[in-house]
Design a protein that fits this description.
Structural class: mainly alpha
Number of helices: 3
Helix content: 40-55%
Order of helices and strands: HHH
Number of strands: 0
Shape: globular
Radius of gyration: 13 Å
Distance between the termini: 48 Å
Largest sheet: none
Strand content: under 5%
């Protein structure tokens, strides 16, 4: 059974997780702004931050780790 979304802005934890994975693969910073862009402008910053915190990202934008060569 498919999950029902309520309105155009409702986002799930799984969608935020998938957006984070996509951002990391692209070498982009994981934060509410970029996650919302990755989601096509969907979701409130409050909800995105809540999901980022649940996923272990701080409420402040996290930078991807770059290793020294």
């Amino acid at each position: 059974m498919a999950k029902k979304t309520v309105g155009k802005g409702h986002i799930t934890l799984e969608e935020v997780r998938d957006a984070c994975i996509a951002l990391l693969k692209q070498g982009r910073r994981v934060g509410p702004w970029n996650v919302r862009l990755e989601l096509g402008g969907r979701g409130s910053y409050t909800t995105i931050n809540k999901h980022l915190n649940a996923l272990g990202f701080s409420s402040h934008a996290s930078k991807t780790r770059q290793e020294d060569d």
